[in-house]
């Protein structure tokens, strides 16, 4: 029996590689004859660079940048010198996991540090920059990133604005970067795990800002700010592009300020690691992520893995930390078995801190 393990990370708990290791240990207890292929995956958020580095190689470049609250930290990006290609994970500089729960506030956070990573890659001579977005602490639509790259944002009194989410509504004029000509010589691409538009009920603020610390009033203000920034777009289609609302609108910001293209991270990752080749060789495929909910079925990693697995008529099993929104599982997915860690009497704290032990137990009992 050939088993392909291809999970995403379990956020706040285990890396994708650690998930593979725990499941493999459990499976081997009851199926010692099984041939197990581990293929850790990512969806464009935290952990994506590790998957890329394991596949393509490259070296880590670490620099001092500003975190979402403008405090200096050290953050890396991946540099493939032979291809002059930089891979930048925005969560390394502007991610929500960099902040304590009480610090999270998308009105005052910024993607400035992400811009500093991009600037460093440009200084190395990058001709291609891939920006993976996900897990952000921000809702500034890339205003901070653009400021770090030389753009200036002025209010009605021609005073320069601090690049934070709350100031999007106050932008009256944008002064282009002096490096604009250089940006046009670089191929920028954004890899995202969501397909949301920039503003409105399905936009960045209304869908994601609450989990970043926003209340109802702040969400409305942030959304109005996104609408204001969109009024400056020379291409009105940007705001409605799938993925424009990713990372607090950074998807749209990268398209507008950098001329970036945008695509679905899960498809890109699966293509990069030659997933189809491994899937064809497997008898059964096991994937999963930390939390499976309604968003998981809408273009995120596991839905893409399922789609590819079904092409080859391979049975698939899902594992997860927690399973939510079961009543919203699409009819075509209801026949897929899901094994969550979080089930009575296991508590959330135990599920997070002892995930490896429980995944090993699940692996031992899987109906293979």
UniProtKB/TrEMBL annotation:
<comment type="similarity">
    <text>Belongs to the glycerate kinase type-1 family.</text>
</comment>
<dbReference type="InterPro" id="IPR004381">
    <property type="entry name" value="Glycerate_kinase"/>
</dbReference>
<dbReference type="InterPro" id="IPR018197">
    <property type="entry name" value="Glycerate_kinase_RE-like"/>
</dbReference>
<dbReference type="Pfam" id="PF02595">
    <property type="entry name" value="Gly_kinase"/>
</dbReference>
<keyword id="KW-0808">Transferase</keyword>
<dbReference type="GO" id="GO:0031388">
    <property type="term" value="P:organic acid phosphorylation"/>
</dbReference>
<keyword id="KW-0418">Kinase</keyword>
<dbReference type="InterPro" id="IPR018193">
    <property type="entry name" value="Glyc_kinase_flavodox-like_fold"/>
</dbReference>
<dbReference type="InterPro" id="IPR036129">
    <property type="entry name" value="Glycerate_kinase_sf"/>
</dbReference>
<dbReference type="GO" id="GO:0008887">
    <property type="term" value="F:glycerate kinase activity"/>
</dbReference>
<protein>
    <submittedName>
        <fullName>Glycerate kinase</fullName>
    </submittedName>
</protein>
């Amino acid at each position: 029996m050939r088993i392909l393990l291809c999970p995403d990370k379990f956020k706040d708990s285990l890396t994708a590689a650690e998930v593979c290791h725990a499941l493999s240990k459990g499976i081997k207890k009851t199926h010692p004859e099984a041939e197990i292929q581990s293929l850790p995956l990512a969806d464009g958020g935290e952990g994506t660079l590790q998957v890329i580095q394991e596949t393509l190689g490259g070296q880590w470049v670490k620099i001092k940048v500003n975190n979402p609250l403008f405090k200096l930290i050290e953050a890396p990006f991946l540099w493939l010198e032979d291809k002059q290609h930089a891979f930048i994970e925005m969560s390394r500089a502007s991610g929500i996991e960099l902040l304590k729960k009480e610090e999270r506030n998308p009105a005052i956070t910024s993607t400035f540090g992400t811009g500093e990573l991009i600037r460093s890659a440009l200084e190395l001579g990058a001709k291609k920059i891939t920006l993976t977005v996900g897990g952000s602490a921000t809702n500034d639509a890339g205003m901070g990133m653009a400021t770090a790259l030389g753009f200036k944002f002025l209010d009605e009194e021609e005073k320069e604005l601090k690049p934070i989410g709350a100031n999007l509504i106050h932008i009256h004029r944008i002064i282009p970067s002096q490096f604009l000509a250089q940006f046009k010589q670089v191929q920028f691409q954004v890899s995202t795990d969501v397909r949301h538009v920039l503003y409105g009920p399905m936009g960045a603020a209304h869908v994601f800002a609450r989990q970043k610390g926003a209340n109802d009033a702040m969400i409305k203000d942030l959304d109005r700010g996104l609408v204001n920034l969109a009024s400056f777009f020379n291409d009105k289609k940007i705001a409605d592009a799938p993925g424009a609302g990713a990372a607090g609108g950074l998807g749209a910001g990268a398209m507008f300020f950098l001329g970036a293209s945008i695509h679905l991270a899960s498809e890109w990752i699966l293509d990069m690691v030659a997933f189809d080749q491994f899937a064809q060789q497997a008898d059964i495929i096991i994937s999963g992520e930390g939390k499976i909910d309604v968003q998981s079925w809408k273009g995120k990693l596991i839905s893409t893995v399922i789609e590819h697995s079904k092409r080859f008529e391979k049975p698939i099993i899902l594992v997860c930390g927690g399973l939510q929104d079961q009543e919203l599982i699409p009819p075509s997915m209801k026949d897929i078995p899901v094994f969550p860690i979080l089930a009575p009497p296991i508590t959330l704290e135990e599920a997070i801190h002892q995930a490896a032990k429980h995944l090993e137990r699940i692996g031992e009992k899987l109906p293979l």
